[in-house]
Amino acid sequence: MDYLKAFLVGGAICAVGQILMDTTKLTPARILVSFVVIGVVLGAVGVYEPLAKWAGAGASVPLTGFGYTLAKGTKQAVEEQGIMGALTGPLSSGAAGITAAMLCGLLASLLTKPKEK
């Protein structure tokens, strides 16, 4: 059942992104940034956490989940460190995902032969 929940929620988020690309003049970069911002806002108001607990990876893997992770880290760091936590919290909470993306990009660049367009 967990796999079904993750598939439905993750698929719905991806479907919204595809619909936005097909029906609007928004660039993919703007849609991606919008998803991160939506995740931050929904995480800040407390709506995304129950969704993330219910759907698991279906809500935490897409970019909205990254935004939620940033908001959650900021909130925790501000509670612990005060206003300075607003600067360190997002980086601390998102460090693993950012590092994984950078390492995967490095590995892909080493294993392939990129061509200029």
* Overall tally of domains: 1
- What's the mean pLDDT score? 90
Low-pLDDT runs? none
Number of strands: 0
Characterize the largest beta sheet: strand count, sense, and whether it forms a barrel. Answer: none
Question: What is the overall number of helices?
Answer: 6
Task: Write down the overall geometry.
Answer: globular
What does this structure look like?
By secondary structure, this protein is mainly α. It has one domain (2-111). Helix content is 83%, strand content 0%. It contains six helices and no strands. The model has no long low-confidence stretch (mean pLDDT 90).
Q: In summary, what is this structure?
A:
The chain contains 6 helices and no strands.
How would the blueprint of this fold be written?
Layout: H1 2-23, H2 28-44, H3 48-55, H4 57-60, H5 63-81, H6 85-111
Sum up the structure in keywords.
single chain; mainly alpha; 6 helices; 83% helix
